[in-house]
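Subject: Sanity check before I submit

Could someone independently write out the structure tokens for this chain? I want to compare against mine line by line before I put it in a report. The sequence has 412 residues.
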Amino acid sequence: MILIPGECLAQPDFINIVSDIAILQALGVKVVVVHGARLQIDEELSQAGFSSSFHNGVRITERDHLSFILKAVGIARWRLEALFSSGLPNSPMYGAKLKIRSGNLITAMPQGILDGIDHQMTGKVRSVDVQTIKNILNDNALALLSPLGYSITGEVFNLSFADVGISVAVALQADKALIYNDDGPIYDKSGTLFRQLTLAQCETFLTEETEHAPSNSYFSLRAGYKACKKGVPRSHIISSSEDGTLLNELFTRDGSGTMVYRDSYETTRPARLQDVAGILNLISPLEEKGILVKRSRELLENEIDYFTVLEKDGLVIGCAALYPFAGTPAGELACVAVMKEYQKGGRARKLLNYVEEQAGKLGLEAIYVLTTRTSHWFIEQGFEESTVEELPASRKALYNFQRNSKVLVKNI
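---
Independent answer below. Compare away.
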């Protein structure tokens, strides 16, 4: 599901977005495009000497304005169809001609009177013709939907394109909703970039919108939040002003925009034998620097049940191990590592929290850690300095005096 605001259609490089969508089609991805037309409607009404009123960001569609709105939406749609049919000159998809299908796929009903305001010919989605859309997609065509809906009494209603996009994505059980905007990914006032937000984080972010940088992105972020809230696994907010953001977002691990997700995109879980290669790739650079004690593949395979991994889309980006000491309610935290690209994001803390929970389930009362480089970080996490003499006897016997590691302990 791809949502394209009307403002994007007016951009000089919009053909690049069309080319990216054509590439998706060529790769066999089933694509539904919903376009907006707010800018085009404003221009058409202005030329006719009219202006719209809005309520909570929703246009009040007066009956006298409807013919101009239909004209604006039609022009936006015809432009899209022309671009998809153009053969895409000066693009990687030169010569391609996409099949476009559309129609009366959305049944609408009036918004009615909200807060005492009659929304007149502004409607909302009542139902989606799911089977027809699936037939279009199965015919290797692109389904194109406009922000219009038709009632069972034969009337046409002006709809929010976000409402159409979300409703169709939910009805089709779409894997993703990709939402273009002018601003690209989400930042806060301090300039911090948010590459991903859980539903809970996104809700908080939107609630505190006035505390963040003013941006058109919040319209897209709200749409992405609503889509995920209603069952779409992931929504992606991407820039319409940068070339290639659609493909970067879909085909690179970290993408180019901001993702809102409802599932466990990053998972902390017990390690499995299949994770050994990923753990070795993760810890080998640290072993070469002497930060971690070297472990062979055979040793890792034998000790895999002690390990916890942090996984992102199938990639092991973090690990930690907890070795219980025999005959004592204590254990050792070891081999804590996070891939360089994902450091400073609280992931090491996340691993530690998980290990502490596991330690509690095992009935452990204390966790020891031996480190040569990162004692300050462990102290910040509640560990206290200890001594070799205070180590349980089984671990003290194996202490490597050449490494001269500091001993830290945390009671849990």
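---
OP: Matches mine. For the report I'm noting this point. The domain at 2-261 is CATH 3.40.1160.10 (Carbamate kinase).
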